[in-house]
Amino acid sequence: xxxxxxxxxxxxxxxxxxxxxxxxxxxxxxxxxxxxxxxxxxxxxxxxxxxxxxxxxxxxxxxxxxxxxxxxxxxxxxxxxxxxxxxxxxxxxxxxxxxxxxxxxxxxxxxxxxxxxxxxxxxxxxxxxxxxxxxxxxxxxxxxxxxxxxxxxxxxxxxxxxxxxxxxxxxxxxxxxxxxxxxxxxxxxxxxxxxxxxxxxxxxxxxxxxxxxxxxxxxxxxxx
Length: 224
Ligand SMILES: [Zn+2]
What we know:
alpha+beta, 2 domains, five-stranded mixed beta barrel, two-stranded antiparallel sheet, 9 strands, about 45% helix, binds zinc ion
């Protein structure tokens, strides 16, 4: 078992694997299923190569829920962050479920944790608590056996996300990444630099506009 910074116990997420890569076994009836512990996902092609392809739909759902989790972890206030993570979550969810945006907002504003629990539980139907044999430690331990990689990813969300070194969503490219500091807002130095650049451009445009308006007013005054 792994303890996180709150000293809370998180259960390892297990998925079936080739015999040669196993961290241990789960016994089901007469069968021994070789399993490995899913590490924190990096969600890139290397990860998929190693653990199997995540279906497009699950991937989209994963990213969507990530927005909600980051909003909850940040204690985002919708009125203070009108275009924040919660806003993105609501927009994407309304589109995906063809429901009214106001409906989703109402639900999320009332209780974002309830929304998250309902969404996660729905996706954890393919997960099952088991007692497994940990090869390296020669002992039995509790684990969460997931029937496929998509279920395992959602299980990861709930067991590992409350840590400061958890997953976050890049404010620029909206890709998930594993942050090293709680305040890290961009996935890479590239995204950070690009974001600063566009902020600068926006400022310049704004200044340009106000200069133009002032010039127009001056011209109008002169003409009139
Ligand atoms: Zn990025």
